[in-house]
Amino acid sequence: MIQDFDVGSRLKEMRVAAGLSQRQLAEASDVPHGQISMIETNRSSPSVASLRKILGGLKVTMSEFFEPDATQTSAVFFKPHELRDLTTRLYTKMDATGGRITFQQVGDAKAHGLQILYERYEPGADTGEAMLEHIGNEGGVVISGEIELTVGEQTAVLKAGDSYLFDSTAPHRFRNISDREAVVVSACTPPYL
Predict the structure, then answer these.
(1) Least confident of 72-86, 93-107, 174-188
(2) Confidence (pLDDT) at 115
(3) pLDDT the model gives residue 94
(4) DSSP of 93-147
(5) Contact of 2 with 89, CB cutoff 8 Å
(6) CA-based angle 26:131:8, to the nearest 5?
(7) Which domains does the chain have, with CATH numbers?
(8) pLDDT range class, residue 4, cuts 50, 70, 90
(9) HSE-up (13 A, CA, CB side) for residue 103
(10) Diameter of the chain by CA atoms?
(11) How far apart are CA 160 and CA 62, in angstroms?
(12) pLDDT of 1
């Protein structure tokens, strides 16, 4: 895991390059103005849901945020080390060891209009109290462990072998409320993260 990635500096760099003030980015992202400032000064680490909302205001993906130099490839097959890391750089040495989420993307989702993720949720991991909402559809299969999924007013604890499929405009949230890691393979179209 790369520990020296500065989420705050990268966000500020992208915001300035887009010609936006903190307030303008907050409005475009529908997040509080202070949240942008707190992240840019590294006084707060964003949840996956919060960072995704903010990046939506910049019209960039998490892959573009964390791996700006990733080359486009026409590869068809991928080894585990070739998956694109979308989340581990959110965490620093200062963060608690539990509750991390790892999203690894297969290939160039934007080029294919389909995002396939290998997801790992440590015990206590949560996409964030702010529910995710975006245009598209997503589905997945729990490979191991269990994950609590809330979609709109419905909540279920899914175990290995269980699956899900829903319209992503419905507010949704993923949480690992168990004491062991959960692994999920998912797909989303169009790509969201």
Answers:
(1) 93-107
(2) 93
(3) 40
(4) TTS-SSS-EEEEE-S-HHHHT-EEEEEEE-TT-BS-SSPB--SSEEEEEEEESEE
(5) yes
(6) 40
(7) 7-66 (1.10.260.40), 80-189 (2.60.120.10)
(8) low
(9) 25
(10) 46
(11) 27
(12) 38
The answer to whether 49 touches 130, Cβ cutoff 8 Å, is yes
Task: Spell out the residues 6+ positions from residue 157 whose beta carbon is closer than 8 angstroms to its own.
Answer: 146, 147, 148, 149, 177
Place of tokens 């996409």: 127
Provide the mean pLDDT of the chain: 87
Which element (helix H / strand E) includes 32?
none
CA-CA-CA-CA torsion sign (156, 157, 159, 164): positive
Which residues are registered as beta bridge partners of 146? 159
Average pLDDT (62-70) is 75
Return the closest-CA partner of residue 49 out of 9, 3, 103, 92. 103
pLDDT surpassing 70 at residue 30: yes
